[in-house]
C-alpha cells in the first residue's frame, strides 16, 4: 500500500474553511457516534443511581458492569471481522439495535431478576463493542483524507463534552424520572446511533489506493466498503481475524503506539483511578480534589481536541507519543506532597496530552491501514487497550496494599514516560506512516 508519510506534504488538498460539521454525511455519522458514546457513558451512572435507590445491590452492580465488559471484549473482534466482510453501515445498524434492545431488558430486570440484567448488560456491551470498529471504518468511508483529523477531533469533542455535561444532565433528569425510564432513554440513544448514520462509501473509491491480495487479485472499493463479490469465497472467521493481525504487524508505528497506549491505560490510568480517591481523602481531607481533578482532565481533553483539530506538527507521531507520555504527570503529582492545585493542573495536562495522541492515532490508522482490513485492525486496538485495562485495575490495588501508594505511583509514572519514549524509537513512528513504496 502506498502512503505519503512526509510531514510537509499533504495527501490531499487542504481542508475547506467551513466546519466539518456542516458536511451532512459527516454530521449524521457524528450524531450517531455521539449518541452511542453518551449511551455508553450513561449506563454505569444510571445503574449507580439504581444502587442509591436500593433497586440494585453493590455486588449486583459489579456483576452487571463486568458482564458488559465481557460482552464488549467478546464482540469487538467479531465486529471488526463483520465490518470488513459486510457494509459498515449495516454492522453499525444491527449492533446498535442490539444495544438498544438491551435497555428494556435492563429495565424489566431491575429489582426483579439479576440474571436478566446480567444478560442484558452483556448484550449492551456486545452492541457497543461491535459498533466501535465499524464506526472507525465508516469515518474513513465518509470523510476524505484531508479532513479526517478534523473529523476525529469533532468526534472526541462530542464524547468529552458528554462526559463533562452528562452527570449534571442525568442528575437533573433523575429528579423527574425514575431509573427504569432513564434506562429506556439509553435505549433511545442507541436507536439514534443505529439510524442516524448514512450509507458509507462516499470516499471509498478515492480515499486510499487499491491493495493487492496475496493471489494478485485487486481489492478495490468493494473491499473498502466491507462488501465483496459474490463469487469470491470467504475465508473463515479465524483466518480473517489473523489477516487483520498480519496487517497490523505491517505497521511498526502501530505496534509501538499500541504498546505505549496499553502501558498508559493499564498502569497510569488504572493507578490514578485507584489512588486519586484515596489521596483526595487521606492527604487533602476532602472529596473536592477528586472531583476537580477529573473535571480538569475532561476540560483538558476538550482543549487538546480543539488544538489538534487544526495543528499539523512536522512529526505527528512523535508529537502524539509525547502527548500520550504526558499522562505520567498525573500519577507523578500524586506521589508528592504538593498543593491540590498542582494535582488539578497535572490532570488538565494529562487530558490535553491524551487527545493530542488519540486524534492523530485514529487518523493515521484510517490513512495507513488497508481499507479492507481497517475495521479488524481497529478492533485489535480496542481489544488490546480495553482488554488489559481491567487487568491493571485488578493488580494495582493489591500492589498498593503490598508496597504502598507512593512507590506504585512512581513506577506507573515512570512507565507512562518511558514506554511512549521507547515507542518513538520504533521505525516509522515519527510520522505514523510507512515509507513510500513499502
Structural features, described:
With 438 residues, the protein is mainly α. Helix content is 72%, strand content 1%. The chain is built from 15 helices and 2 strands. Strands 1-2 form a two-stranded antiparallel sheet. β1 and β2 form a beta hairpin. The longest helix has 31 residues, at 252-282. It is globular, with a radius of gyration of 22 Å. 51% of the residues are buried. Mean pLDDT is 84; it is low at 1-16 and 204-231.
Report the total helices: 15
Largest sheet: 2 strands, antiparallel
Question: Which percent range fits the helix content?
Answer: over 70%
* Helix/strand/pairing category: mainly alpha
* Nearest-integer average pLDDT: 84
The general outline is: globular
How many β-strand runs? Answer: 2
- Determine the strand fraction and express it as a percent band: under 5%
- The sequence of SSEs as H and E is HHHHHHEEHHHHHHHHH
- Uncertain runs: 1-16, 204-231
Spatial strand sequence of the major β-sheet? 1-2
N-end to C-end Cα span: 7 Å
- Rounded to an integer, what's the Rg over CA atoms? 22 Å
Set down the secondary structure blueprint.
Elements: H1 24-52, H2 58-85, H3 88-109, H4 114-142, H5 148-174, H6 179-195, E1 211-212, E2 218-219, H7 221-224, H8 237-249, H9 252-282, H10 288-308, H11 316-325, H12 329-335, H13 340-368, H14 374-403, H15 405-423
Antiparallel strand pairs: 1-2
Helix pairs in contact: 1-4, 1-5, 1-6, 2-3, 2-4, 2-8, 2-14, 3-4, 3-6, 4-14, 5-10, 5-13, 8-14, 9-11, 9-14, 9-15, 10-13, 11-13, 11-15, 12-13, 12-15, 14-15
Amino acid at each position: 500500500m502506498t502512503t505519503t508519510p512526509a510531514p510537509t506534504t499533504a495527501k490531499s488538498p487542504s481542508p475547506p474553511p467551513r466546519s466539518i460539521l456542516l458536511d451532512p454525511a459527516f454530521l449524521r455519522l457524528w450524531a450517531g457516534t455521539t449518541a452511542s458514546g453518551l449511551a455508553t457513558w450513561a449506563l454505569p451512572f444510571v445503574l449507580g443511581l439504581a444502587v442509591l435507590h436500593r433497586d440494585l445491590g453493590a455486588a449486583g452492580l459489579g456483576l452487571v458492569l463486568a458482564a458488559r465488559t465481557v460482552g464488549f471484549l467478546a464482540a469487538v473482534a467479531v465486529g471488526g471481522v463483520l465490518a470488513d466482510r459486510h457494509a459498515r453501515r449495516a454492522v453499525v445498524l444491527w449492533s446498535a439495535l442490539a444495544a438498544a434492545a438491551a435497555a428494556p431488558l435492563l429495565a424489566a430486570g431491575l429489582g426483579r431478576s439479576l440474571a436478566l440484567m446480567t444478560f442484558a448488560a452483556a448484550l449492551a456491551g456486545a452492541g457497543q463493542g461491535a459498533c466501535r470498529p465499524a464506526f472507525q471504518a465508516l469515518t474513513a468511508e465518509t470523510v476524505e483524507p484531508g479532513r479526517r483529523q478534523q473529523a476525529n477531533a469533532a468526534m472526541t469533542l462530542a464524547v468529552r463534552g458528554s462526559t463533562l455535561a452528562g452527570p449534571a444532565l442525568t442528575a437533573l433528569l433523575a429528579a423527574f424520572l425514575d431509573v427504569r425510564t432513564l434506562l429506556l432513554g439509553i435505549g433511545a440513544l442507541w436507536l439514534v446511533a443505529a439510524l442516524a448514520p448514512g450509507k458509507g462509501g462516499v470516499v471509498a473509491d478515492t480515499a486510499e489506493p487499491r491493495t493487492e491480495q496475496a493471489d494478485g487479485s485487486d481489492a478495490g472499493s468493494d473491499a473498502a466498503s466491507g462488501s465483496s463479490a459474490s463469487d469470491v469465497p470467504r475465508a473463515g472467521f479465524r483466518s480473517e481475524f489473523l489477516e487483520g493481525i498480519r496487517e497490523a504487524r505491517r505497521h511498526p508505528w502501530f505496534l509501538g503506539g499500541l504498546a505505549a497506549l496499553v502501558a498508559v491505560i493499564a498502569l497510569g490510568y488504572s493507578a490514578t483511578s485507584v489512588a486519586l480517591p484515596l489521596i483526595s481523602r487521606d492527604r487533602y481531607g476532602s472529596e473536592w480534589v477528586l472531583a476537580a481533578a477529573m473535571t480538569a482532565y475532561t476540560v483538558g481533553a476538550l482543549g487538546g481536541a480543539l488544538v489538534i483539530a487544526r495543528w499539523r506538527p512536522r512529526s505527528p507521531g512523535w508529537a502524539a507519543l509525547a502527548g500520550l507520555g504526558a499522562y505520567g504527570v498525573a500519577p507523578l503529582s500524586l506521589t508528592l506532597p504538593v498543593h491540590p492545585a498542582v494535582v488539578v493542573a497535572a490532570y488538565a495536562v494529562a487530558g490535553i496530552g491524551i487527545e493530542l495522541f488519540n486524534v492523530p492515532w485514529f487518523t493515521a490508522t484510517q490513512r495507513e491501514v488497508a481499507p479492507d482490513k481497517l475495521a479488524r485492525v481497529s478492533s485489535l486496538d480496542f481489544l488490546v487497550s480495553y482488554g488489559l485495562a481491567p487487568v491493571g485495575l485488578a493488580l494495582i490495588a493489591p500492589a498498593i496494599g503490598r508496597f504502598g501508594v507512593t512507590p506504585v505511583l512512581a513506577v506507573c509514572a515512570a512507565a507512562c514516560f518511558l514506554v511512549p519514549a521507547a515507542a518513538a524509537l520504533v521505525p516509522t513512528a515519527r510520522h505514523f506512516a510507512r515509507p513510500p513504496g513499502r
